[in-house]
Amino acid sequence: MGYSGRYHAASLAAVFLALAVGILIGVGFGSDIVTGTADDLQQGLENDLEDARAQVDDLQGELEAERTFEAAIYPAVVEDQLRSREIALIGIGGLDQGIAGDVDAAIGPAGAEVTEVAVVRSPPDLEALAQTVGERRAREVERGDPEAVQFAAERAGRALVEGGPRFDSLRGSVLSRYSGSPDGIDGVVVVRDPPEDLDPDEQQASDALQQGLVDGLADASITVGAETTGDDPSSIPFFDDRGIPTVDSVDLLSGRVALVYALTGAASGNFGVKDTADSLLPDLLTPDEQIAPGAGGGRG
User: Fold this and answer.
1) How far apart are CA 265 and CA 173, in angstroms?
2) How many other CB atoms are found less than 10 A from the CB of residue 218?
3) Statement to judge: residues 8 and 90 lie in one domain
4) Domain range spanning residue 56?
5) DSSP per residue over 203-257, as a string?
6) The domain spanning residue 114 has which CATH number?
7) Which of 76, 84, 226, 261 fits as disulfide partner to 282, beta carbons 3.0 to 4.6 Å?
8) How many CB atoms lie under 10 A from the CB of residue 219?
9) Which of 35-39, 162-166, 293-297 is least confident?
10) What is the DSSP string of the chain?
């Protein structure tokens, strides 16, 4: 038994010694392996990064070339589509200078000009709005009756396109900004910047104003609702509910093409890049296929 015990103890000692030696050797080899693997991984990632950067540079160059090409052919695509037409730009609640510039950049090469710019107060000043209608309706407008407010706003929308005796009172009571003239308007671009955090009465008056105004504009002239790709929430459903064609991307060249062709009066639907769009562009028409200026057709 003594011999067996000593043998067993010696065997255990040998095993532990072998383990210790193995661990030391393993640590040394393992460190070399890990270090080598890390170096290889780093080199591989650096190569991948360089390849990705080269691809980005190539794609950026292609994108710039596409933009240059689009900008070069844009005048040819829209040339004479809106020859000598006068366009009104109407903002409801507000009008960002960026989108105003986009609209101007779209229609200029097509031969049109923005000759009227107006910003409609929203929510409306009911007392001031009441001054634009007859006495009976005026009392209803002042009380905020939705039908009366919508009626007054519809008349205001027509006056913005047609001018006439009502326009003078409209300018001082309904508009927060105005320039140009309502005479000879052939088409209207409407943008919305509705206010937020209105109380229920203000919201009701604002809704009635917007509905009546857009209906009046569309009755009087070719009307298109417009916004940029960054507008959120989108106003496209508001216009679509009223049968008014829309463009959701006037900050893109494709959206500008769509706006021009929508303003010819021969296109209906929603155009652009958002989920609400029916297609990127309307059918591209020749000038002979267009609806004549002043023929209406805003609501289909």
Assistant:
1) 30
2) 28
3) no
4) 1-78
5) HHHHHHHHHHHHHHHHHHSEEEEE--TT-SS-SHHHHHTTT--EES-TTSHHHHH
6) 3.40.50
7) 261
8) 16
9) 293-297
10) -HHHHHHHHHHHHHHHHHHHHHHHHHHHHHHHHHHHHHHHHHHHHHHHHHHHHHHHHHHHHHHHHHHHHHHHHHHHHHTTTTTT-EEEEEEES---HHHHHHHHHHHGGGT-EEEEEEEE-SS--HHHHHTTS-HHHHHHHHHT-HHHHHHHHHHHHHHHHH-STHHHHHHHHTEEEEEE--TT--EEEEEE---SS--HHHHHHHHHHHHHHHHHHHHHSEEEEE--TT-SS-SHHHHHTTT--EES-TTSHHHHHHHHHHTTT---SEESSSTT-SBSSPPP--GGGSPPTT------
Tokens of 203: 């919201």
Out of 74-78, 103-107, 290-294, least confident range: 290-294
Q: How confident is the model at residue 15 (pLDDT cuts 50, 70, 90)?
A: low
Q: Which two tokens stand for residue 92?
A: 């409801």
- Residue 178 corresponds to which amino acid? Y
Highest mean pLDDT among 49-53, 86-90, 281-285: 86-90
Residues 110 and 70 in one domain: no
Residues 91 and 34 in one domain: no
Compute the mean pLDDT over every residue in the chain, rounded to the nearest whole number: 83
The pLDDT tens digits for 130-142 are 988 888 889 999 9
